[in-house]
Amino acid sequence: MKIDQKDSKIIEILKSNAKLTTGQISKKLLIPITTVHNRIKKLEKAGVIEGYTIKLNYKKLGFEILAFIQVNVIYTLPSGKKIKQEEVAKKIKKLDGVEEVWIVAGGTDLLVKARVKSIDKLNDLVINKLRMVEGVDKTQTLVVLKEV
Q1: How far apart are CA 108 and CA 71, in angstroms?
Q2: pLDDT, tens digit, for every residue of 62-78?
Q3: Which long-range contacts (CB under 8 A, 24 or more apart) does 80-88 make?
Q4: Dist. CA 5–CA 129, nearest whole Å
Q5: Are strands 98-103 and 136-143 parallel, antiparallel or unpaired?
Q6: What is the pTM of this model?
């Protein structure tokens, strides 16, 4: 699917505030409501827009700690069993406090985004849960001091 300038502008507006109506977007872009509606439907049908979400203030919800955890995978377990990187990533994704998991290239195999209520909860997540996942070899935790 080819994305033109109007589609790009609609996407940018929706990225900043997905709650806007087609009428509000129409006024911002000075194009007819039906055009905005049809273009959004086309973008959804093509899979460019996969869904809509909300942005939360995690501190107000009590989730004070945001961390990124680098994970190295051991591909052959001591038992001789082979394990795939994606299997490990899927197991980690299920852990409470884990928001996202990416398979990455470089000096680490996986990057985990976790959000928890306290340092004690982060400690529990990393030591008692994440490091117990079959296939996890080493971890390195980066705690976010401030989001900009």
Answers
A1: 6
A2: 999 999 999 999 999 88
A3: 83/134, 83/135, 85/109, 85/110, 87/135, 88/133, 88/134, 88/135, 88/136
A4: 46
A5: unpaired
A6: 0.82
